[in-house]
Specification:
Elements: H1 2-9, E1 17-20, E2 26-29, E3 35-38, H2 42-45, H3 79-100
Antiparallel strand pairs: 1-2, 2-3
Length: 105
């Protein structure tokens, strides 16, 4: 998911660059020059899909749309709110389970 967001919203001149290799790995280069390489996990389960393809041609990235961030996904709740919700929900389930079958003492 993260590489899709980077490719969609942060690639282009002055931003991230990305190159795909014949074996399916993707190398992302940050504006600072640091590189990150992802390897496709599918070939572990589907070895026939892990065969290398021909050398891929390089293409020039189109200039970024200045309004591209308007299409970026937004969270409806913060991570902290999601975590608090999950904890409260699990506690409510635990309480209901205990109340349905109280201890005998």
């Amino acid at each position: 998911r993260i590489h899709h967001l980077i490719k969609t919203f942060h690639c282009g001149p002055g931003g991230w660059t990305e190159s795909q290799h014949p074996d399916g790995t993707i190398t992302l280069t940050a504006p600072t020059g640091r590189t990150y390489t992802t390897t496709p996990g599918g070939r572990l389960f589907f070895p026939q899909l892990g065969t290398a393809t021909a050398e891929l041609p390089t293409i020039d990235m189109p200039p970024p749309n200045p309004h591209r961030t308007l299409a970026a996904p937004r969270r409806s709740r913060t991570r902290a709110q999601n975590r608090a919700y999950r904890i409260a929900h699990e506690r409510a389930l635990n309480r209901a389970h205990i109340d349905a079958d109280p201890p005998p003492f």
